């Protein structure tokens, strides 16, 4: 087996493991309690462990070396971490793990939308528009709005997570270009954790938020869930980025929906999750549509040169 094939195989193992760890962490954190309180504990714990790991492996965060542009990217990542860490838990509670993950796919799919729209007269543009339409149809089928079962607040939370995912990916790519993905992400996590702790403390002090569900046992569970949802995925994703191309990673990211649905299925069978988390036959069809669309978009992610229209082959 050649070296490039070994690298792609390594990425193929790292990224699905990262997605599985992330969904298990969110599934554990979403069981009861306030999403804001749970998200605060999870993000703080996960970010703390990640920062300690980066400090131990790389000799510190070296924040003094960040210029203004780097700090702006770190702030964008921090905002995304805060939104994802709280809104995703709310979406999982109000919808389900599989549906929340499916809606979140629109974040990566929306990257490069302006270029796709401008190239709509080419085969490349038509390919992307068609498959993004398939993804939209899959999300609609999964949510079934015609049956009146969609929780508006949950759907809005999932859409907010999709936007945050788009912002996160774009900012991380630019930090990666600067060689600061590890330190930038760790710093952003600490900032997000500090902001969430402040907001939670203010709301609790004002009497608008109850934190009585924060027993010692629950805090331990949420802390471990934060490590699974943030620390482990970030480390594995950074390893995968160094092993495979962006196209290969895009295909692997399309596994998030079925991974979430499978974990939800296991959780229901084990009696840890509500039976409403289990996707039905139509749900699996919808998930397959979203996965196919994500893979198709990722496989033709590179736009042809100006004036070229290579067709669909």
Structure, described:
With 313 residues, the chain is an all-alpha fold. It contains 13 helices and no strands. 75% of the residues lie in helices and 0% in strands. α2 packs across α3, α2 packs across α10 and α11 packs antiparallel against α13. The C terminus is likely disordered.
Radius of gyration: 20 Å
Which word captures the global form?
A: globular
Mean pLDDT: 79
Number of helices: 13
**Helical percentage:** over 70%
Q: What separation lies between the terminal Cα atoms?
A: 27 Å
Flag low-confidence runs: 307-313
Strand content: under 5%
Strand tally is 0
What kind of sheet is the major sheet?
A: none
Supply the helix-strand structural class.
mainly alpha
Q: Could you spell the SSE succession in H and E letters? A: HHHHHHHHHHHHH
List keywords for this structure.
globular, disordered C terminus, 313 residues
What is the topology?
Elements: H1 3-29, H2 35-58, H3 68-94, H4 97-104, H5 106-109, H6 113-118, H7 123-143, H8 152-177, H9 181-205, H10 216-241, H11 246-253, H12 256-269, H13 281-299
